[in-house]
């Protein structure tokens, strides 16, 4: 029975899961959820994720929600397939640190900025300049830490590409399409890392899904 | 025999106490290294070497130095899989997947409103910062919605991830403790039958009682 991903092609959290599946060359079935119609806030979707958010995931009898829990599951359950996105032993501890950094340091500010600069315009809503003004310097400070880290390590978690890098891709791609691109361009190590991870073939496949819809 | 692991930061910090609870559950000996946040020690170059975001906790053992409380907890559980509470972070892949799901739910959905409330209700007054009434109202509403979903989940499950107390439940202890004590939000938990049962059970664990004692003695 093939794995299923319930979500939206433009949902950053859903895209995190697609990226993982493509990196590992795994077959899956995409079940679109009509976010505009609020399908994710009703049954039967709520049975898959009681928080009413995408994505939701199925692998046989296993049902999961929370994109970062789903990607972890896939990376370990299919460790021998495609790109190894986690490490065994001690390096995994540091990969784990930077996975938390993405979730709590980067995403906190990046998702607020993404909402104002990318999604609100898409929905014809007015941008709140105060929110951008407040969160831009905070994101910049996080990127300063990234610049120092990437001066010591090829990728965030260790010397190879892992979930710690992958989890950034959806929101990063969104922000690189806004004036905030300058924050990433201004930091050489960060800029090189961004270019490297965004150029991965698996990521191109995720983006191609958007033009198919 | 390995030296005690080191945890940097004050016991009053929610993130520090998350790590302490985990160490106690796993019977791993630790040494608490104070960090004087009132004098900004956590923002000074010496400390930034071990936690570049200038936050607590930081952690060291004989082989590694790491930070981020949930990453530290996972590391402790994996390294000491055979010690103390073995169900805390199960090695069974399907059980672990459920633990990860609820640990992410805690980090992404429970933590934002609960930590905003903890700051406003427990820490702001102490720091002579004026409380933001709008923020309190907004986050009370968000927390309420999250607790409704938890109550539904805990109707059919003893703990969040399943039948056993795990890291997913443990991760909720620090913020919730402040909410129901100094935050005066006990009713939000006691008015929901299953949440009430769950909170009473997890907060009565010896490990958590020990952490609360440590917080009082500072």
UniProtKB/TrEMBL annotation, chain A:
EC number in record: 2.5.1.18
Which domain of life, per UniProt?
Eukaryota
Q: Which SUPFAM superfamilies match?
A: GST C-terminal domain-like, Thioredoxin-like
Q: Which positions fall inside the GST N-terminal domain?
A: 1-82
Record has Transcription regulation as a keyword: no
Secretion signal span: none
Q: Keywords assigned by UniProt?
A: Cytoplasm, Detoxification, Transferase
One example of the protein's molecular function in GO is:
glutathione transferase activity
Q: Name one GO cellular component term.
A: cytosol
Residues in GST C-terminal domain copies: 88-213
Location relative to the cell:
Cytoplasm, Cytosol
**What is catalyzed by this enzyme?**
RX + glutathione = an S-substituted glutathione + a halide anion + H(+)
Question: What are the recorded Gene Ontology BP terms?
Answer: toxin catabolic process
What is the protein's name according to its record?
A: glutathione transferase
UniProtKB/TrEMBL annotation, chain B:
Q: Select a single GO molecular function from the record's annotations and give it.
A: glutathione transferase activity
Alphabetized InterPro entries for the sequence: Glutathione-S-Trfase_C-like, Glutathione-S-Trfase_C_sf, Glutathione_S-Trfase, Glutathione_S-Trfase_N, GST_C, GST_Phi_C, Thioredoxin-like_sf
Matching entries from Pfam families are given as:
GST_C, GST_N
Q: Which superkingdom is the protein from?
A: Eukaryota
This enzyme's EC code(s): 2.5.1.18
State the compartments where it is located.
Cytoplasm, Cytosol
Going by the UniProt record, its keywords in alphabetical order are:
Cytoplasm, Detoxification, Transferase
Q: Does the keyword Cytoplasm apply?
A: yes
This enzyme catalyses: RX + glutathione = an S-substituted glutathione + a halide anion + H(+)
Q: Which SUPFAM superfamilies match?
A: GST C-terminal domain-like (SSF47616), Thioredoxin-like (SSF52833)
Q: Which GO terms describe its cellular component?
A: cytosol
Q: Which CDD domains match?
A: GST_C_Phi (cd03187), GST_N_Phi (cd03053)
Give GO BP annotations, semicolon-separated.
toxin catabolic process
Q: Which residues form the GST C-terminal domain?
A: 92-218
Residue limits of the GST N-terminal domain?
3-84
Family note: Belongs to the GST superfamily. Phi family.
Provide the protein name: glutathione transferase
Organism expressing this protein natively: Eucalyptus globulus
């Amino acid at each position: 029975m093939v794995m299923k991903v319930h979500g939206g092609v433009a949902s950053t959290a859903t895209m995190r899961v697609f990226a993982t599946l493509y990196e590992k060359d795994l077959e899956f079935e995409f079940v679109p959820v009509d976010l505009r119609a609020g399908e994710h806030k009703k049954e039967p979707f709520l049975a898959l994720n009681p928080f009413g958010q995408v994505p939701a995931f199925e692998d046989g009898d296993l049902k999961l929600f929370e994109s970062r829990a789903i990607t972890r599951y896939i990376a370990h359950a299919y460790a021998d397939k495609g790109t190894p996105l986690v490490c065994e032993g001690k390096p995994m501890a540091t990969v784990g640190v930077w996975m938390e950094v993405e979730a709590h340091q980067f995403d906190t500010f990046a998702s607020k900025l993404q909402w104002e600069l990318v999604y609100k315009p898409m929905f014809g809503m007015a941008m709140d300049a105060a929110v951008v003004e407040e969160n831009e310097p905070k994101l910049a400070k996080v990127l300063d830490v990234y610049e120092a880290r990437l001066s010591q390590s090829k990728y965030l978690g260790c010397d190879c590409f892992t979930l710690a890098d992958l989890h950034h891709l959806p929101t990063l791609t969104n922000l690189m399409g806004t004036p905030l691109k300058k924050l990433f361009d201004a930091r050489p190590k960060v800029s090189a890392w961004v270019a490297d991870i965004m150029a991965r073939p698996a990521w191109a496949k995720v983006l191609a899904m958007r033009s198919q819809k | 025999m390995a030296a005690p692991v080191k945890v940097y930061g004050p016991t009053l910090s929610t993130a520090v106490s998350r790590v302490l609870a985990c160490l106690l559950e796993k019977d791993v000996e630790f040494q608490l290294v104070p960090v004087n946040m009132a004098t900004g020690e956590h923002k000074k170059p010496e400390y930034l070497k071990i936690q570049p975001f200038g936050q607590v906790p930081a952690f060291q053992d004989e082989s590694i130095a790491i930070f981020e409380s949930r990453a530290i907890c996972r590391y402790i559980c994996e390294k000491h899989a055979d010690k103390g509470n073995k169900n805390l972070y199960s090695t069974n892949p399907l059980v672990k997947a459920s633990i990860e799901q609820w640990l992410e739910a805690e980090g992404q959905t429970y933590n934002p409103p609960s930590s905003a409330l903890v700051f406003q209700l427990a820490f702001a007054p102490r720091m002579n910062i004026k409380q933001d009434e709008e923020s309190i109202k907004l986050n009370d509403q968000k927390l309420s919605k999250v607790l409704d979903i938890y109550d539904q989940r805990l109707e059919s499950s003893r703990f969040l991830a399943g039948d056993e107390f795990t890291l997913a439940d443990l991760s909720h202890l620090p913020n919730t403790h402040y909410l129901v004590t100094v935050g005066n939000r006990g009713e939000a938990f006691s008015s929901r039958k299953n949440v009430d049962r769950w909170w009473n059970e997890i907060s009565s664990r010896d490990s958590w009682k020990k952490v609360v004692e440590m917080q009082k003695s500072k």
